[in-house]
Amino acid sequence: MDEMNVELALPEPASAPDDVSVPERLQDLVIDSEDVGGFLGDLAVFSAAAVSAAVGLNVHCGITLSRRRRTATVAGSTHEARLIDEVQQTFGDGPCLEAMRTHSTVHVPDTSTELRWPDYCKVIADRGHLSALCVPLELDEGATAALNFFAPQAGAFSDAIIKDCELYASQAERSLRLAVRIGVKQQHADDLKDAMQSRTVIDLACGIIMGQNRCTQDEAFQILKKASSSRNQKLRDVAEGLVKNVAKESPVAHFEP
């Protein structure tokens, strides 16, 4: 099988042409999402629909992310998908965590008889999820993630479906890397804007103190720091309060786009 979308009947966006490839659709998800969280939610829904069409069953998809030694369920195609993924973290181990730890796909053909994670598998089997497939995603800087699929029938994931899901994951991880990089750059931009805003407010406050006390800028800054320490407030908050008290409105910094 050369192309994954031969096996997996991916959902068609309303305006998408018939020849749009899987990577192109994943890139569209990145472009259309407002942030990383939005992309992950869309990816979970998109992935669940694709695998559901392939196996002919209603498959749930959860996405787990591990970064800086912290692991969390970050998205799900449904509330139930998030729930059964989060339950695994409560137990501290399971197929998804194993997939991320070993960087290899983990398949549970029948959760009702699975012996590797009996407690967790019993919980999800009792909820009607009788098979599971967890495919790892390799991200930047040591971060890992996994696409976790849960089906209501034992043996739902054939060897061919597993192979296609692994190919799909390799395509999805590239889009996820892009989404994360965009998100990091946006966060850096927001942090820089906040820093500039804080600097502007502090400079305004120092100017007011200089005018009131006929002192230097350094002396004014030291007065502001002393007030911050004695009131146990952040320097910016003290500065903003001073400017607001004098100008009768909150200070606003204007930056060129």
3D architecture notes:
- The protein has helices spanning 4-7, 22-32, 36-55, 79-91, 95-102, 118-126, 159-213, 217-231, 235-247; strands at 60-67, 70-76, 106-108, 131-138, 144-151.
- By secondary structure, it is of the alpha+beta class.
- The chain has a 5-stranded antiparallel sheet with strand order 2-1-5-4-3, sandwiched between helices.
- Helix 2 (22-32) packs parallel to helix 7 (159-213) and helix 7 crosses helix 9 (235-247).
- The longest helix is centred in the C-terminal third of the chain and has 55 residues, at 159-213.
- It is elongated, with a radius of gyration of 26 Å.
Give a brief outline of the structure:
With 257 residues, this protein is an alpha+beta fold. It has helices at residues 4-7, 22-32, 36-55, 79-91, 95-102, 118-126, 159-213, 217-231, 235-247; strands at residues 60-67, 70-76, 106-108, 131-138, 144-151.
Feature tags:
alpha+beta; single chain; 13% strand; 58% helix
What is the molecular shape?
elongated
Mean pLDDT: 78
Portion of residues in helices?
Answer: 55-70%
Number of helices: 9
Work out the number of β strands: 5
> Which secondary-structure class do the elements indicate?
alpha+beta
- In the sheet with the most strands, the strands line up as 2-1-5-4-3
Order of helices and strands: HHHEEHHEHEEHHH
Gyration radius, rounded = 26 Å
Give the biggest beta sheet: 5 strands, antiparallel
Alpha carbon gap, first and last residue:
49 Å
Low-confidence blocks of residues: 1-7, 9-20, 187-191, 251-257
The proportion of residues in beta strands is 5-15%
